[in-house]
Design a protein that fits this description.
It is a single chain. It is built from 10 helices and 13 strands. By secondary structure, it is of the alpha+beta class. Strands 5-4-6-7-1-8-13-12-11 form a 9-stranded mixed β-sheet, sandwiched between helices. A two-stranded antiparallel sheet has the order 2-3. Strand 4, helix 5 and strand 5 form a beta-alpha-beta unit. The longest helix has 23 residues. The model has no long low-confidence stretch (mean pLDDT about 95).
C-alpha cells in the first residue's frame, strides 16, 4: 500500500481583525444597556444583572488577544453583535467556498503541480453553510478538479479526520492526491452576548494536499507516519442549530442554537483523553513522544495546550516545540492545528518528527504523526 505525505498547505486569512479591547468595548456597552433596560426587574430579583468583561480576563482565560473575521462591522456594533454576511445568489461562489478556494490556490502553488492532478476534494469543517450541494463539490468545480468531493463535519477535529481519510484513500489506491480544505466562519455561530464565550472564535480557511509518496517530489513534504481517530459522546460542547429546529418559536438566535460549552468540564475531560491518546499512539508507532521536535495542537485554549504539551513531552515545552497561534487567530475550530503547521514547520530539518493533533466537540480527537522528508 502506498504511503501518504503532506505535500503542501495553504492559508487564507480574512481582511479584518478584532482586538480584545474592541470586543470588550462592544460587549460592555451591550451589558450596560441591558442592565439599564431591566433595572426594575434586576432590583426586584426577577432578572440577573449581566457582568462586564475585560481584555485581561479574556487573555488569562484563553490566551487570545485578537481574532480575524470575515465581517467586523456587525460584530463591534452593540445593536447587532453578529457578522453581517448577506446571503449570496446561487450563481455566486458561496462564502465558505471562496475562502477555501483561496487557501487551496496557495497550497496548489506551493505544491508546484496542476490542480488537474488532484483526484478528490474533502471539505472538513465545523459548520457548513448549507445542507447541499456539498461545499466540497462547489470548491471542486471552482478549482477545475475532477474525481469526487464530499463534506465532513467532526467539529474541531475535522482536519485530522480529513487527513486520515485522504491518507486512507491513497493507501487503498482510490486516489493519488487529495485536497482537504477547512473553511471556518466561526463568528457566525458564536454568541457575542455571552461573557464566557464571546471572545473564543475567529474566521479562517486552511488547505492541505495529501499525496502518494511515490508521486511526491523527492525531499519535499512530510511523511505521514500514522493517523488515529477517537470519539466519545458528550454534550459539554454543543450547537443545536439545524434544519429541523431553525424555525422554532424562540428563533435561530436562541442561545442553544449557537455555540455553548461547559468549559471547565471540557478541560477536565479532554486534556487527559487527548494526552493518553497521543502517548499510546506514539508507543504503537515506536515513537518516543518526548523526542518530538514540534507539536501543532488544536488551538482551543492556551491552558489546555500547555498542559497537553507538558504531559506529552514530560516537561514544560518551549514556544518553538508547542506552537501557539491563539493570540493572533483565536480558536478557528478545525483549522487551528493546520494554521500552526503551515506557519511553523518550514524551519525543521529532514528527519525531524512532529505531531498534528486536534480535539473538540463530540468529543472527538485525531492524531497525525509526521516526519520531515
Amino acid at each position: 500500500m502506498p504511503n501518504a505525505v503532506i505535500a503542501a498547505t495553504g492559508l487564507y486569512t480574512p481582511p479584518h481583525s478584532v482586538s480584545n479591547e474592541e470586543l470588550v468595548e462592544t460587549f460592555n456597552t451591550y451589558v450596560a444597556r441591558f442592565n439599564d433596560r431591566h433595572a426594575a426587574e434586576i432590583e426586584a430579583g426577577a432578572v440577573t444583572a449581566l457582568q462586564p468583561s475585560s481584555p485581561e480576563f479574556i487573555t488569562k482565560a484563553s490566551g487570545i488577544k485578537s481574532r480575524f473575521v470575515m465581517d467586523k462591522t456587525g460584530i463591534v456594533d452593540p445593536e447587532v453583535m453578529r457578522p453581517n454576511l448577506p446571503e449570496r445568489p446561487n450563481e455566486e461562489l458561496s462564502v465558505l467556498a471562496e475562502m477555501a478556494v483561496a487557501a487551496a490556490r496557495e497550497a496548489i502553488e506551493r505544491w508546484g503541480k496542476p490542480a488537474s492532478e488532484i483526484d478528490a476534494v474533502l471539505c472538513a469543517a465545523s459548520n457548513m453553510q448549507r445542507a447541499y450541494p456539498a461545499m466540497a463539490v462547489e470548491i471542486q468545480s471552482a478549482l477545475g478538479i475532477g474525481g469526487f468531493a464530499f463534506d465532513m463535519n467532526v467539529a474541531c477535529s475535522s482536519a485530522t479526520f480529513g487527513i486520515k481519510t485522504a491518507a486512507d484513500f491513497i493507501a487503498a489506491g482510490g486516489a493519488k492526491a487529495v485536497l482537504m480544505v477547512n473553511p471556518e466562519v466561526c463568528s457566525g455561530h458564536l454568541n457575542f452576548k455571552d461573557r464566557d464565550s464571546h471572545f473564543i472564535f475567529g474566521d479562517v480557511a486552511t488547505a492541505v494536499i495529501i499525496e502518494a509518496e511515490d508521486q511526491a517530489r523527492p525531499g519535499t513534504g512530510w511523511e505521514i507516519l500514522g493517523t488515529r481517530l477517537k470519539t466519545q459522546f458528550s454534550n459539554n460542547i454543543r450547537n443545536n442549530f439545524g434544519f429541523l429546529n431553525n424555525a422554532a418559536p424562540e428563533g435561530i438566535g436562541a442561545p442553544d442554537k449557537l455555540f455553548v460549552q461547559e468549559g471547565r468540564k471540557v478541560f477536565r475531560e479532554v486534556v487527559p483523553m487527548v494526552s493518553e491518546m497521543i502517548t499510546e499512539h506514539a508507543a504503537d508507532l515506536g515513537i518516543d513522544p518526548t523526542g518530538l521536535k514540534r507539536l501543532w495542537l488544536h488551538q482551543a485554549n492556551i491552558n489546555m495546550n500547555e498542559m497537553i504539551g507538558r504531559r506529552v513531552l514530560g516537561r514544560d515545552p518551549t514556544p518553538e516545540e508547542n506552537v501557539i497561534i491563539l493570540d493572533e487567530y483565536a480558536n478557528t475550530s478545525s483549522a487551528g492545528s493546520i494554521i500552526a503547521f503551515h506557519l511553523h514547520s518550514d524551519d525543521l530539518a529532514a528527519g525531524d518528527q512532529g505531531l498534528i493533533c486536534s480535539f473538540g466537540a463530540g468529543y472527538s480527537a485525531g492524531t497525525v504523526f509526521v516526519r520531515k522528508r
